[in-house]
Amino acid sequence: MAVVAAVLATTALQTTTGATPANAAPPPGACHDPEPAHSPVPAQPWAQQLLAPERAWPYSRGAGVLVAVVDSGVDADHPQLNRPGKVVPGRDFYLAGALPGAFDCVSHGTGVAGIVAADPVPGIGFHGVAPDARILPVRISDRDVGDQGEALRIDPQVVANGVRYAADQGAKVINLSLAGHDDFAVIRDAVAYATARDALVVAAAGNAQKDAGTELPSFPAAYDGVLGVGAVDIDGARLSASQIGRYVDLMAPGAKVLTATRAGGHSYVDGTSFAAPFVAGTAALVRAAWPRLSAAQVAQRLLATASPARGGAGSHAYGAGIVDPYRAVTDGLDPAKPAALPGYLPRPPDQARLDRAAAERATAGTAKWLTVAAVADLVLAALVAVVVPRGRRRRWRPGWASAVPAEPVSTEPPEQIFLVSEP
């Protein structure tokens, strides 16, 4: 049976452990080696601080949008996912039978679902992007790594069945946190089936990058209609393993991001697997705020509103930039055309005001000339006070200036003094 070459694109790094009791209840024998419980982490993660999706919540919280998490299942008992109706039963395509998908053995799918839609709760900084979105868990794997740490493979037919099921259930967003180098026709056809039903498919770009110059293939991210998502760290730099290629459409936090784990806790994880749900959650916000947009139009909106990244717009390493939930929801929020303004009607002049202004100008002019006349009278009086007494003393006889000498009086220079004797 053919298998997917690489699966569940993540290098999960758990840094917190604890002894909290397990809340999940997988069916007996369903988990090969269930991941132990983790402690809750109260700190607010850097990814939530960077994207701040709560800025968009006054306009959209993702209500009414069903997001399919095609993954390892989802622990529907997690305290941030257990609100009635948030996680629907879903389906398990990995194990035979009619099992639901609402349980998880390895926390991968629970982590993805938490980033999409975890509820905010007191005392915990972590929350999802679209807390009112509903989660459809579609279980297609048991675990993401084997006993020796190797990446496990998934039957491509199981993946395809899960994608088709999600589309048939009415999922408006389908998150595929998996990547492989091989192009399987059954998965390609299933993705086309979902996009034809107006589902926006979001896929991880993959974590197989070894250098900065080689473009590796990545499916399903490279399929038509799929948004491929790469990962950045807290500094906005591409995660070194995040793959580079034309299929990279957007970037999102994917290095040491905090997310939910099975049995009620949290852990820090790395990988494009956990960058993809930030985009899927943002797509849910947009689909709730703009219900008339098609999946293709939602994708276009996410690309157009992305924040600039280091690689520049359209680079194969960073795509259009880093997803921005607030701008994706709010840019051009009012689509109605502006109302027509009434015709301009000039107001009639206020004649009384104009008359008052003219009178004030006339008064000001009169005052100015009276001031000039008063100053002139003062100057004339001063001249009279000086001239009349002098004229009386001279009995009004004219005075003459001193006569100019006929020849200028010359002044002889002093006798020259020599400091040394003449020779």
TrEMBL record:
Domain (Peptidase S8/S53) ranges: 62-321
One Pfam family it belongs to: Peptidase_S8
SUPFAM superfamilies in the cross-refs: Subtilisin-like
Gene3D superfamilies, A to Z: Peptidase S8/S53 domain (3.40.50.200)
Cell membrane listed as a keyword: yes
Localization of this protein: Cell membrane
Superkingdom of the source species: Bacteria
Family to which the UniProt record says this protein belongs: Belongs to the peptidase S8 family.
UniProt protein name: Type VII secretion-associated serine protease mycosin
Organism: Amycolatopsis samaneae
Gene this protein is translated from: mycP
